[in-house]
Amino acid sequence: MKLISISLRNLRIRLVATVLTMMSIIVATALYAAILVMAEQTEARYEGSIGGFQAIAGPNGTSELELVLNTIFNVGEASGRIPLEVCEQLRKSRGSRFRRSQVRYAIPQARGDSISRFNFPVVATIDEMFSKFEWKREPLQFAEGGPFEYSWDELVALATGLAAHENGKRAGDEVIPERPLLQKKWKQAVVGARVARSLKLKIGDVVVPVHGKLGEYDTHEHPEAACAIVGILEPTNSPIDSTIYLPIGIHLLIDGHAGGVFINKLGAGQSPVKAESMPVDPMRIALTAVICDPLDHMGSQILRKQFGSHEEAQVAWPQDVVPKFLRQIGNAADALAVIAWLVLLVAAVSITVAIYNTMNERRREIAIMRSLGARRFQILAIITGEATLLSFFGAVLGLVACHSAEYFMQPTVEDLTGVYLDWTLFKVWELWLVLGVSGIGAIAGLAPAVKGSMTQVADNLAQNY
Amino acid sequence: MIHLRDVQKSYSRGDQTVLACAVDRLDIESGEQVALIGRSGTGKTTVLHILAGILRPDRGEIDVAGARLDKLGEAARDNHRGRNIGMVYQTFNLLQPFTALENVLMGALFGRGAGGDAKERAAALLEKVGLGDRMHHRPGELSVGQVQRVAICRALINDPQLILMDEPLGNQDKATGGQVLDMMLQIASDNDKTVVMVTHDPGSAERMQRTVDLATLRGDTATSSGATSVETSR
Ligand SMILES: Nc1ncnc2c1ncn2[C@@H]1O[C@H](COP(=O)(O)OP(=O)(O)O)[C@@H](O)[C@H]1O
Ligand SMILES: [Mg+2]
Questions:
Q1: B209: domain CATH number?
Q2: N or C: which end of chain B has fewer CB atoms below 10 A?
Q3: ipTM confidence
């Protein structure tokens, strides 16, 4: 028999009160841990996911942050569209003899589709995503299979065909050039590691693109564009793992309702209605972003200058944007942490009150222990022990709650923030949190413990009625 | 074993002072078994608590089991009580949430320590009083006589030199209570322990070697200097 077993027994015989009091500790700990986990995993995720996305060209009229969040972290909708010519410009300046080369690669991306039944984001792009794009200075690795085949030239050819067809239609020509057809060889998809894992996809399985996102008003499947999976990527521990890559040709053809793939360039005073009937240019095909990698510092400078005053596009630099964003998140996390501390404070007070309230009914039992030879400090230790144990168990259960929440909330959180919560991750600070909360509990137990240790022995042993 | 000199304890209630007990002189030798009698309210329990070191009198010398309790601080008296004195109360004062064995062990925990073979000794004591099959029962699941025996085991677990009992027969019928008392006294005399028992039951008092009437120890304010204790020997 030890003092701690007396503390434990005292908690157990007041089980209901113990559990109720523990609740507030559980909530406070879980809240605090959740905030820390979110802040930490967001930081790790966001910092660890930039690799390769050196610069992102996207539409004007949106914030750089939005552009970065959407392009790298799959958060929200694409915030606008840029014409293919932006990508072309970036690519042309590459390796030219007289102009200094700017970028190692410039890869077009178009978003807006998803995969039927599952809201994993679809990125329509070209084969350079798997040959030129560098993820942390190396091309993306395949766990199984390989890249799909859809080159820049194929994209340009398709854009030209689409434009010819559209222009014929708009001009009211007698012979309208055929709308290019969806080619069988394009129906290929590459999926990220987590997509493959959670949808249990293998090479050869078929995914059906959906226009828009599942659950939205006018979403519909495009079974004619069902793609076979040709490659499964190695995990990158970034949002790439949750992404499905399709050839951009598929996107353009299924997205082609009413010529919507072209962006009209309006002159001054031109009405959008008039623009509908204006001839289109192949290079006005709509993209949502271009991923580029400046060759060097000079390349970055040129890019900055070039896009500083571009009328349709801007370039976002994740290396600048993400840390700024993280600082804001850090501030928000700090504010939330204050709330968690307040909850913990309230929880501590509730422990004090709950135990203090039992002191009257326990005067006799304390007097009995004293009559057996218990010193005041032992009574103090027993009661403080109760508060400490209660907080300790509360803290441990709070962490369990936090990790369960991570497990259950994972899909929602990823959808909203692009952060993949790994519930199996345990950190050293969790140990400190448990110790800290237990310590706070000990302090909370001090007041009742002091009261208990002051209990008059003789009076409370008295058998005089 | 016990030497009290000029001990007095009073309580103030507002402007009124109640003399709870006054003992000019009380000497009890080692191994003696003494009954302390007196009408209700004469201060028997108070004297017992003073002997135990639970109460500190307003004045007087207290020498119990080799310690000058009037000179010791509270923690030291607690420690002394835990190690050298076993106590049995009228209501037995077992802790309800704990089993018989745990109650006995708690005596060891606050006395000479619950480590080592304490558990075996506690079990052996309970066996000895016939509670071998009730060790893991809570007080609520035991009869009055069984509770009394657990209380006695708890008083004996530290092998104390002195056992103090406050009307230990409780409200149980005299026959069973008396049997347990006899057993207790037998254990005490076998091990040369000193026993002081407060009682108002003449039958119980007769079982003891000596009876002390508290009223005769009382140094009244008027006659305090000349008062002598009247002791009746068996
Ligand atoms: N804490 C106290 N405050 C005031 N008076 C007390 C207190 N404890 C005991 N007394 C008084 O002291 C006297 C002796 O009490 P007690 O020792 O319990 O008597 P006994 O055990 O002989 O019945 C009684 O008159 C009682 O009312
Ligand atoms: Mg009494």
A1: 3.40.50.300
A2: C
A3: 0.91
